[in-house]
């Protein structure tokens, strides 16, 4: 069938997201003295199945002291990643269109980190075996594997919805995009006719409504591959054990916080079997949270324990972004607000060592830092050594991203030489920053750029009907951006 290569969608390119889970320094922070990489030092990193390659290129810009490799079987994806690497002068990034098996046979070093986001459960058994063989051959002893994948039982109710859509698309007419649209229409029709599947699984209707809002490039890759296998954690752990890999940590601080919060529940319910077997505990945790996606860090046997330098922290958000209660994983987190607010305020002046930062929070310092980490309001910062080289490489990529925003709404982040990672900036933010760099008035620049393309931002999710109201909306957004976002971006070195 047209549009599938080895069962994988190639007719439509993937989305241009930035995935924070791929960043090396939060991985190192999560792993502590077991991390094979040290803040700001050289390392070798590989991303398998990198999609459009935006996250990989951003990490290469933010870590010019390190070397980055990656592959993707879709030639358009590789062309996009090469464009980013060439136009931003990222000589430390090398990408390949080879599939996993051929890529393993090519001239590659052994890596400190191999990362796969949204790949494992989107390819078939043969490709998963090729991935394990790749890791066995190209990962250092003690090296890190990041794996982000769809997990059971969180996806259980939705498997028949995907089967319905795929079966319909296989039989449909026209382009893949048209067949995808047709398959969603069929699902809507069945729901409208009170189909039993929708009746006894009410959350499926909610999921269908969400799918109807998503762009076709996301849907194509998320739901319309021939291979799509949400999997149990224990099956993944068993497959990776063949390459000497064991689960070491959750990469997201929010998931580590929740892990601690659920530990008693899991041990009480699971008894001795759970106490003895960490993989079984993880399986139970997936039943308790019912989360649909895991973000795991595995470590390969044979590594050494390393002394870790004092942690440095940088602010990713403004004190006004702080909430008293939030749900960063699957259950609510009560934030020690005053302590967290004081710490985030102190960080606005620039990175701080952990001991000094904790002192700002008094007795609640440790709980407040955990909350700030879980809410992604702080990130590990790199030592000052190498800052100038990082700043120059980030500035080249960021200039390209600001230029790109004039025409397209994609790649929603900028590179930070302070964290060696990314910071979220939407298209409008990038238009404001581009105006500032060109010495133009930000609101008028955003207004004329968008109006010339016949585009307007939404207000409360609804279209704005007049140019005057559009300008007023942009002025409001600029006021908030200048007050809350710009100072953070300056402190992160993401804007000069
Ligand atoms: C769901 S997408 C995820 C892309 C990217 N990692 C992300 O999360 O943005 C899966 C990616 O795997 C790539 N892929 C599929 N089979 C592959 C193979 N055998 N070798 C290399 N890449 C492959 C696809 O082209 C696609 O870009």
UniProtKB/TrEMBL annotation:
Residues 47-144 form the Methyltransferase type domain. It holds the Pfam family MethyTransf_Reg. It comes from Niveispirillum cyanobacteriorum. InterPro entries: Methyltransf_12 (IPR013217), MeTrfase_reg_dom_prd (IPR018773), SAM-dependent_MTases_sf (IPR029063). One of its GO terms (biological process) is methylation. This is Methyltransferase type 11. GO terms for molecular function: methyltransferase activity. Keywords: Methyltransferase, Transferase.
